[in-house]
């Protein structure tokens, strides 16, 4: 008998990661291909993808490596980072993540693979965790309404500027920023202000608002509390004067300091913003972290981003949901004042749980310890003859050492400590939760001072002003008092996770959202200290591993997309949109074409497109969408001609928002270019293109990418995300840059889009690892299987539900839209009924009513295996049979399993009066009792939740005590 000899090299390679990432194996792929009438993946995509956009060459990426090899390579990169004790401050601080939160939230797929809680019945755990976060922020800031997190402190302050302009009494005037605000925040505000015509004035407000500025009119004021220099000042008089001028006052506050200091709300502020990073979230070289915004009651309905509120379910039981759930961008589009469509849910959950675990007493203890170290440090410096600029501070000192600042910073670095050099004379020093005695000794030595910690501890007084000490109670709800032991905390986190549906339970077939595998190998390096504990403003030579990883990822993303340059700074897809449009605007202005301000956007586009365009200083002109789902070519050409001299850019999603490969995309791009415009290809659907077509080569000038879609960063329950912007060479000079890290972007850039130089750098190892694990061929096959899976589902469901749009060969791209409207018209069964009934079958619903009302957009991705695809199709087919029973009158149109879905375990108890059985309710066809997912609540009343905007403490009766 002859045996095949396998070489040692082949054996060493092991199983390619591609086979772990792609769900259907070769046998399953063959079955799926046969079902839709194709013999191979190449044959399928050769038919589906128009010839005019196909890539001529394979992706020029390094060969795929094994999981062990990639982890070893990442270890090598991590080892090139030098993590010193960080005392730089400026909004980023060392913190200790409680291991119970690290392991059971940050590293737990039940939390990080979940989607945005738009299906609240199966998101009750996350929603409760976010309500904890909102309660924490609202009570610490002293303002009644807090959102469910924003992207970072800088963008939160920019959102506050826009909110102030929208709701304030003064409609003109300037936005006044105190010079002691964080420098990155000021820079982000200036980036955001200029395109919209807002004048930002930065001034020293320590003595009040200068008369010459007051005369010009002020619509908003931003203060930092404590200041970037560390100064703690009483802002009451300043806030009162600003209100006299009709201005809306925003205070950027440090939550840890607010455990000891009077809250912004009590001081008179209208808005509070900031970051929750120091509440247990690693610095991660700048992100991701959960920003926050809290507002006075009159501004609650204008709050950007998401807001968790309390509603009731069908039984009248309290239940959580996103209040005002339909995002502003989809209602107001070009009239929106914010393009925020995401949040930082995973990080907000961590920060909220940090407060739950420590409680108010624990937080105060951490704050007092931090302040105490700063006080002792200050007294030691003063005793050694070092002048301190401020006498009142919380955790940050500014020392004046004329001409010696660089020398002191260098000496501290030699001792393993990073300080901040403010200028030639000033040094900033920040204490935090991780500061220890060794750091104090090292700092004193760097200044040439010797001191006795024990002696100073016995003689140093508190330095916080008596008039600013906090006297009110906060975090009084039981949730902040009941989980002190690790056992209690562990069980609380498990209880919440069990209420939710995430990818660790089953398929989340959301169109446009690409809920695919977030592999453990990709996730593991994120929590390594060498990646997690680096300050974003640390010297570049201490971050060589990070900078190499970032450079390689940017280069490989450019290769994949056919563009010339990529910036990974934008920390959400919406921010990538804004960055790309700002680059286009800057390019036209550099060419003297300042009149080019018109942005053409198809009517089917995602709502953030229009909002981003307006924020970039552009005028939106809507282009019609045809009945086939494609851009209406006649209307497009008419609009191009009408606005030829003013045309700045066309924003188009490809494949289209309707899930098809439009055959005329190259002609569309050519027409726009002929008129002098640029083409923005929205990268939301890139999972259908990687390895098959490159936007930068078939007509695009700029795209944003969603690393939390195509490149495997997990959605985290609605964040974090990364939205890099990719451009052709002529737009590269106008990519984002950053004032505190010159290497983060071109000198001619548009300014920072995010607070951190490289955005959410802490999660970039995920996408770097994905590309490294898959290689060019693996990425291409992943795309091909994504297209195969979507077409397989479309083919299986087509006899039961109309598939709304198809492209070449009657095929869809990576997602398909099924039309429920005819069934609704015939039977009264709504799209909501179908979505909620899917919960009883053990599924998260597809995307509802986008981009077409009354439809479901289904995207299976390449990671779901054939068994799961079939389970979903079987459920949809069974639901179609249930709809038929309603249509024929076998089931009452108002009392049937669809209208009453989802069914909880509690609903089964007691008297059963429905005309269908308990078994039909909770164990429909294909549902195995032992594997049943039980939703914690019945259908939630959305209208009730919007009318009753409850958004602070969880109700007392939501807990068992």
TrEMBL record:
The modification N6-(pyridoxal phosphate)lysine is found at residue 709. It holds the Pfam family GDC-P. GO terms for molecular function: glycine dehydrogenase (decarboxylating) activity. Its EC number is 1.4.4.2. It is an enzyme of class 1 (oxidoreductase). Residues 782-903 form the Glycine dehydrogenase C-terminal domain. Keywords: Oxidoreductase, Pyridoxal phosphate. Residues 20-447, 453-736 form the Glycine cleavage system P-protein N-terminal domain. InterPro entries: GcvP, GDC-P_C, GDC-P_N, GDC_P, PyrdxlP-dep_Trfase, PyrdxlP-dep_Trfase_major, PyrdxlP-dep_Trfase_small. It comes from the Bacteria. It catalyses: N(6)-[(R)-lipoyl]-L-lysyl-[glycine-cleavage complex H protein] + glycine + H(+) = N(6)-[(R)-S(8)-aminomethyldihydrolipoyl]-L-lysyl-[glycine-cleavage complex H protein] + CO2. The keyword DNA damage does not apply. Its cofactor is pyridoxal 5'-phosphate. Belongs to the GcvP family. PANTHER family: GLYCINE DEHYDROGENASE (DECARBOXYLATING), MITOCHONDRIAL, GLYCINE DEHYDROGENASE, DECARBOXYLATING. The glycine cleavage system is composed of four proteins: P, T, L and H. The glycine cleavage system catalyzes the degradation of glycine. The P protein binds the alpha-amino group of glycine through its pyridoxal phosphate cofactor; CO(2) is released and the remaining methylamine moiety is then transferred to the lipoamide cofactor of the H protein. This is Glycine dehydrogenase (decarboxylating). It comes from Streptomyces endophytica. The gene is gcvP.
């Amino acid at each position: 008998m002859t045996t095949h000899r396998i070489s040692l090299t082949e054996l060493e390679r092991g199983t390619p990661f591609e086979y772990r990432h792609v769900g259907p194996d070769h046998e399953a792929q063959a079955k799926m291909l046969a079902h839709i009438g194709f013999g191979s993946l190449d044959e399928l995509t050769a038919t589906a993808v128009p010839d005019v956009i196909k890539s001529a060459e394979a992706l020029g990426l390094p060969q795929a490596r094994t999981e062990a090899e990639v982890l070893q390579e990442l270890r090598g990169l991590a080892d090139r980072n030098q993590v010193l004790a960080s005392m730089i401050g400026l909004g980023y601080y060392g913190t200790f993540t409680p291991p119970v939160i690290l392991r059971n939230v940050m590293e737990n797929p039940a939390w990080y693979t979940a989607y945005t809680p738009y299906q609240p019945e199966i998101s009750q755990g996350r929603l409760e965790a976010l309500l904890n976060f909102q309660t924490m922020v609202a009570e610490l800031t002293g303002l009644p309404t807090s959102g469910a997190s924003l992207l970072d402190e800088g963008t939160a302050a920019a959102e506050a500027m826009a909110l102030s302009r929208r709701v304030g009494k003064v409609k003109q005037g300037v936005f006044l920023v105190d010079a002691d605000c964080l420098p990155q925040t000021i820079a982000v505000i200036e980036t955001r202000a200029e395109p919209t015509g807002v004048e930002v004035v930065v001034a020293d407000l320590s003595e009040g608002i200068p008369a010459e500025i007051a005369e010009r009119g002020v619509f908003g004021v931003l203060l930092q509390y404590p200041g970037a220099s560390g100064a703690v000042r009483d802002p009451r008089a300043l806030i009162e004067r600003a209100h006299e001028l009709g201005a809306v006052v925003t205070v950027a506050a440090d939550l840890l300091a607010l455990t000891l200091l009077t809250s912004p709300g009590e001081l008179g502020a209208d808005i509070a913003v900031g970051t929750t990073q120091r509440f247990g979230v690693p610095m991660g070289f700048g992100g991701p972290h959960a920003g926050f915004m809290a507002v006075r009651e009159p501004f609650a309905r204008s709050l950007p981003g998401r807001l968790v509120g309390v509603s009731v379910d069908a039984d009248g039981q309290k239940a959580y949901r996103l209040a005002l759930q339909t995002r502003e961008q989809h209602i107001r589009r070009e009239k929106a004042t914010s393009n925020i469509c995401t949040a930082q849910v995973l990080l907000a959950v961590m920060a909220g749980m940090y407060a739950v675990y420590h409680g108010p007493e624990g937080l105060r203890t951490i704050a007092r310890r931090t302040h105490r170290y700063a006080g002792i440090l200050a007294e030691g410096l003063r005793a050694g003859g070092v002048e301190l600029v401020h006498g009142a501070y919380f955790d940050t000192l500014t020392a004046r050492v004329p001409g010696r600042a660089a020398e002191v910073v260098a000496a501290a670095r030699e001792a393993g400590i990073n300080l901040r050099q403010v200028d030639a004379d000033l040094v900033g020093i920040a204490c935090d939760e991780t500061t220890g005695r060794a750091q104090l000794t090292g700092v004193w030595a760097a200044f040439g001072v010797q001191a006795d910690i024990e002696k100073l501890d016995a003689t140093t007084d508190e330095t916080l002003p008596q008039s600013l000490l906090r006297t009110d109670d906060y975090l009084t709800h039981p949730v902040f008092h009941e989980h002190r032991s690790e056992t209690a905390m562990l069980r609380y986190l498990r209880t919440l996770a069990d209420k939710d549906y995430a990818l660790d339970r089953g398929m989340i077939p959301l169109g446009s959202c690409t809920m695919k595998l977030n592999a453990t190998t990709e996730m593991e390096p994120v929590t390594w200290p060498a990646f997690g504990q680096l300050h974003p403003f640390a010297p570049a030579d201490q971050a060589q591993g990070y900078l190499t990883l970032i450079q390689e990822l940017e280069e490989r993303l450019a290769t994949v997309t056919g563009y010339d340059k990529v910036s990974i700074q934008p920390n959400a897809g919406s921010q990538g949109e804004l960055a790309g449009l700002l680059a286009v605007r800057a390019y036209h202005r550099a060419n003297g074409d300042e009149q080019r301000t018109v942005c053409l956007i198809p009517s089917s586009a995602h709502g953030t497109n229009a909002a981003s365009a307006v924020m970039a200083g552009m005028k939106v002109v809507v282009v019609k969408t045809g009945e086939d789902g494609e851009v209406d070519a006649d209307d497009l050409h008419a609009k191009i001609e009408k606005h030829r001299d003013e045309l700045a850019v066309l924003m188009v999603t490809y494949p289209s928002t309707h899930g098809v490969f439009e055959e005329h995309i190259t002609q569309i791009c050519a027409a726009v270019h002929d008129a002098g415009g640029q083409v923005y290809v929205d990268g939301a659907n890139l999972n259908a293109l990687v390895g098959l077509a490159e936007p930068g080569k078939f007509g695009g000038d700029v795209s944003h990418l969603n690393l939390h879609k195509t490149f495997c960063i997990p959605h985290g329950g609605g964040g974090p995300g990364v939205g890099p912007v990719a451009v052709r060479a002529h737009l590269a000079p106008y990519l984002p840059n950053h004032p505190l890290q010159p290497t983060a972007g071109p000198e001619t850039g548009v300014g920072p889009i995010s607070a951190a130089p490289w955005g959410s750098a802490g999660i970039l190892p995920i996408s770097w690892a994905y590309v490294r694990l898959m290689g060019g061929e693996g990425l291409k096959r992943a795309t091909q299987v994504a297209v195969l899976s979507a077409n397989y589902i479309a083919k299986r469901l087509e006899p039961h539900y109309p598939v709304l749009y198809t492209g070449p060969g009657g095929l869809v791209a990576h997602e398909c839209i099924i039309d429920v409207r005819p069934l609704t018209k015939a039977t009264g069964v709504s799209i909501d009924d179908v979505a909620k009934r899917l919960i009883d079958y053990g599924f998260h619903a597809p995307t509802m009513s986008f981009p077409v009302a009354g439809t479901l957009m289904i995207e299976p991705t390449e990671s779901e295996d054939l068994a799961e695809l079939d389970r979903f199709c079987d459920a949809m087919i069974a639901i179609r049979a249930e709809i038929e029973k309603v249509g024929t009158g076998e089931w009452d149109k108002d009392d049937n399993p669809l209208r009453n879905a989802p069914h909880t375990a509690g609903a089964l108890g007691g008297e059963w009066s429905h005309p269908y059985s308990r078994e039909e309710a909770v164990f429909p066809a294909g549902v195995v009792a032992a594997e049943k997912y039980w939703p914690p609540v019945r259908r939630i009343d959305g209208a009730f939740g919007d009318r009753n905007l409850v958004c602070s403490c969880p109700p007392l009766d939501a807990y068992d005590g």
